[in-house]
Amino acid sequence: GLISTTVSSLEKGKLYFFRVSAENSVGSVVSQNVGVFTTQPEIPVPGLWEYCFNGTFSDTNLDPIDAGSGYLTAGLVPIKTTIWSSNQNFDFSEGAMMARSGSQFANDYYGMAWSGALVVGGSSPVTAGAVSFGTRSDDGSILWIDVNRNGVFEAGELVVDNKGLHGNVNRAGNVTLADGNYKWAAGIYELDGGAYMGVRWKQGVETNYDNMTFVNPGANPGMFQTAATFPTRNITSPTTASGTVGPPFSFQITTNVANPLFSAYNLPPGLACNPSTGAISGILQTGGVYSVTVAAQGTTNTVTGSL
Ligand SMILES: [Ca+2]
Ligand SMILES: [Ca+2]
Ligand SMILES: [Ca+2]
142, 144, 174, 186: which has the fewest Cβ within 10 Å? Predict the structure, then answer.
């Protein structure tokens, strides 16, 4: 019969599988074929995601910010998440940060993070070439840019390293970027005592935070969007293949997804897919028509195709 169900908590841009089962008083059966689908990536809007965290945090929540115990992993649940797109300088006193949390954290033991994508070129005030960023913070702060656009922040992409327990300290860094959009994130934690977080930027190479201007997603339309977008990717191999029972069968899955992990579902008996090469091979055991789903998972794209 026709059935429907609602599944929540799915993540963006991921590959999911399902089977259906039916049961009665005699027993149950589970569908032989696996259903495969991918969720859509986030559709960006102007601004930056802003997250407030309540608790005792340290450098490990900033470095790396999207892995391990970092703020932007599934392991930490923010007490408040908003999209910041108002005309307001990135110039937050302790009182300002407490207000942004809706007074959900007190004056000590909290953290904040901001994520989205920096847009270079087009209508953005940021143009291709060297771009500098700086933070002034009490306590530690960082600023990451996914310079190589592979969807994750890596060691060489920590643009501003202002970590550590300290009073107000200025730090700056710079990167060279081409036109496009780049995953961008900043974060701070406050242990106790005073607190402040400021983020500034300037086109070109600038090593002095005081010579830069405040980041302001509202006053610089086009500078930030809430998520990075990556070129559309797909499975590029043929959608049909035929073989005969007996002799070895082989088929190559191809894709323009970078660093793909391949998989194939509902293959005829006797065939298997090599996850690293995308080669489907084996000996066909019975004749018939099979509907196979092939998939390629990369860091920024997950795509499926029919075979
Ligand atoms: Ca404080
Ligand atoms: Ca990267
Ligand atoms: Ca402090």
Answer: 174
